C-alpha cells in the first residue's frame, strides 16, 4: 500500500465513512476506491482519471487534493496528454433576402394613372353628349328659307377605349417562394490514428446525447479544454446524459469502450468509424444557411 492511499484511507476512517458512503458521495465505483487506497491503479483507465479520482476522493474526506498529487506524484502513473482542437470556424455571413422587384414597387403608380385617365374620358364623353342636343335651328317669323345645321362629328372610339381600360385587370405581383429549412448533415472529414473527425452542417441549436448499455468511461471537452459533462466519469449500463453544444464551435470526445456507449447529435446517431478502445471523436459545427 502506498503512502498516498494510506493517507486517504486514514482520513476516511477518521470521519467514520465506509466505502459505500464514499461511493455515494463521489460517484466513483467501489473497486476504483479500493484500488486508490491500495495503490493499485490498473483498473482505472489512464493517468488522467487516476488523478481526477484521487482529487475527488481527497475533497470528499476534507483533504487538499492538489497538494496530495504534488507530494506523491512519483507514486502515480504517467498522465496521457489529451489535446483538444483549438481552431475556430468562421461562420458564413447570412444572405439578405431580396426585396420585391421593380414591378411591384411601380404598380400603385400605374393604377393611379389609369384611374385618372378613365375619369377624364368619362367627363369628355358627357360633355360631347350635352353639346350635341340641338341639331336644327328654329324657323324665322318672317318666313325665310329653312336650313338644317350640320351635325358635329362625334368621336366614337374613345368611349370604347375607356371601357377596355376599365375592364383590363391589373397585374398581380409574383409571390416569392419561402426559403426551405436547413437540413442537418454529418459528414466524415478524416480518420487519423485513433481520432475520427466529422463536420456537422445544420441548425444552430444542437444537443449531444449519450446512452450506455455497459461500463465505459467518457470525457467531452470544448475548444477551451473545459469539461462539458456534469463529471468526466465512467458510465454504467442504463445511464444517459444530454449536453447542449449550441454555443460551441467544436467538441472533442474520448471514449473508453465504443461498444458500450452510443452517441446521438440532434437525434441522429454518430457512427464509430473505428473499432478501437479507446478512441477519439471530434465534431466541428457549421450552421446551415
Automatic annotation (TrEMBL):
Superkingdom classification of source: Bacteria
Region listing for Disordered, in residue ranges: 75-103, 135-185
Bias type Acidic residues, positions: 161-179
Transmembrane helix found in the keyword field: yes
InterPro entries attached to this UniProt entry: Bact_Cytoskel_RodZ, Cro/C1-type_HTH, Lambda_DNA-bd_dom_sf, RodZ-like_C
Native source organism of the sequence: Planococcus plakortidis
Membrane-crossing residue ranges in chain numbering: 110-128
Biased composition (Low complexity): 148-160
GO molecular function: DNA binding
Cytoskeleton protein RodZ-like C-terminal domain mapped to chain residues: 210-276
Keyword field: Membrane, Transmembrane, Transmembrane helix
Protein's name in the database: Cytoskeleton protein RodZ-like C-terminal domain-containing protein
Pfam families membership: HTH_25 (PF13413), RodZ_C (PF13464)
Amino acid at each position: 500500500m502506498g503512502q498516498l492511499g494510506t493517507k486517504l484511507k486514514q482520513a476516511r476512517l477518521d470521519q467514520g465513512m465506509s466505502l459505500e458512503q464514499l461511493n455515494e458521495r463521489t460517484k466513483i465505483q467501489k473497486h476504483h476506491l479500493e484500488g486508490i487506497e491500495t495503490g493499485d491503479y490498473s483498473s482505472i483507465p489512464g493517468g488522467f482519471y487516476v488523478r481526477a479520482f484521487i482529487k475527488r476522493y481527497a475533497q470528499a474526506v476534507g483533504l487538499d487534493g492538489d497538494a496530495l498529487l504534488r507530494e506523491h506524484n512519483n507514486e502515480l502513473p504517467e498522465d496521457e496528454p489529451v489535446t483538444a482542437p483549438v481552431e475556430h470556424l468562421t461562420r458564413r455571413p447570412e444572405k439578405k433576402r431580396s426585396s420585391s422587384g421593380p414591378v411591384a414597387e411601380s404598380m400603385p403608380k400605374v393604377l393611379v394613372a389609369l384611374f385618372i385617365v378613365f375619369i377624364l374620358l368619362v367627363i369628355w364623353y358627357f360633355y360631347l353628349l350635352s353639346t350635341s342636343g340641338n341639331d336644327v335651328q328654329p324657323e324665322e317669323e318672317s318666313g325665310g328659307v329653312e336650313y338644317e345645321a350640320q351635325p358635329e362629328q362625334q368621336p366614337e372610339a374613345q368611349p370604347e377605349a375607356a371601357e377596355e381600360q376599365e375592364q383590363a385587370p391589373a397585374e398581380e405581383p409574383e409571390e416569392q417562394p419561402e426559403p426551405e429549412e436547413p437540413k442537418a448533415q454529418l459528414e466524415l472529414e478524416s480518420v487519423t490514428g485513433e481520432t475520427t473527425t466529422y463536420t456537422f452542417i445544420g441548425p444552430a441549436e444542437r444537443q449531444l446525447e449519450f446512452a450506455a448499455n455497459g461500463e465505459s468511461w467518457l470525457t467531452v471537452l470544448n475548444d477551451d479544454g473545459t469539461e462539458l459533462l456534469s463529471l468526466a466519469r465512467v458510465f454504467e449500463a442504463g445511464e444517459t446524459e444530454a449536453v447542449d453544444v449550441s454555443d460551441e464551435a467544436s467538441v472533442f470526445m474520448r471514449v473508453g469502450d465504443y461498444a458500450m456507449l452510443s452517441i446521438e447529435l440532434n437525434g441522429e446517431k454518430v457512427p464509430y468509424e473505428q473499432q478501437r478502445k479507446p478512441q477519439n471523436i471530434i465534431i466541428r459545427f457549421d450552421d446551415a444557411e
